[in-house]
Amino acid sequence: MKKLAIHRRVRMKKALMFCVALVILSSAAYAQPYPMGYIGLFLDEGRTNWCVTGEGMYSFEMWILCHPSERGMMCAEFMISYPGDIIPSTVTPNDAIISVALGDLASGMSVCYKACQTTWHWNYHQTLFMTTPNKVILEVVPHPDAGAFQFANCLEGYPIEPCKRLVAIHVNYTSEEQECNEFAVKETNWGAIKGLYR
């Protein structure tokens, strides 16, 4: 009987160690950086919302958020496509991380950082005014000079690499609409969705 109890305890310890190893391995896999960077527009710094609606003329906030690739991020090039129904207003740069910026959001922005970025960060925040009840989409588009939205990574020489557009802001869309309940871009993958909540 004693031998059976000892054998059971040994098996329990092995099972417990196996479970602990699985948790550690899955946590490590979950924390792996992305092979490609992401850029997206959100209504909040916490990346929880990208759909807004209101009545009459109303204001809302736009946050431009980036997640570097596994090689880090030193610079970004992109442009914002503003529908005619939207009046862009005050732009606030993230001065804590930005070292130099050329251009503007509406005609093409090139921005570089003081240090290599390795996690989610915002580079610009802007107040916008919606003037009609129309449904419109506010999105990141290629920088006209580069022909792409792209990042410079943190490897020697800061090589340029492509990045993926994550989400756009859907204006005058309700929370029940599909665009507001899932990411509305084909490039998005499950890893990117999980990464929003890290």
Observed structural traits:
198 residues, alpha+beta, Immunoglobulin-like, 40% strand, globular, disordered C terminus
Can you describe this structure?
With 198 residues, the protein is of the alpha+beta class. It has two domains: 1-31; 37-195, Immunoglobulin-like. Helix content is 18%, strand content 40%. It has helices spanning 2-30, 190-195, and strands spanning 37-42, 51-52, 58-67, 73-81, 86-93, 98-104, 108-117, 121-130, 136-141, 150-152, 160-165, 169-171. Strands 1, 2, 3, 4, 5, 6, 7, 8, 9, 10, 11 and 12 form a twelve-stranded mixed β-sheet that branches. The radius of gyration is 22 Å and the shape is globular. The relative contact order is 0.21.
**Helix and strand element order:** HEEEEEEEEEEEEH
CATH architecture of the largest domain: Sandwich
Uncertain runs are 4-31, 184-190, 192-198
Task: Give the termini distance in whole angstroms.
Answer: 49 Å
Largest sheet: 12 strands, mixed
Number of DSSP helical runs: 2
At the fold tier of CATH, the topology name of the largest domain is Immunoglobulin-like
Structural class: alpha+beta
Q: Determine the fraction of residues in helical runs and give it as a percent range.
A: 10-25%
Q: Please tally the β strands and state the result.
A: 12
Kindly report the oligomeric state of this protein. Answer: single chain
Mean pLDDT: 80
Gyration radius over CA = 22 Å
Strand content: 35-45%
The CATH class of the largest domain? Mainly Beta
Number of domains: 2
Shape: globular
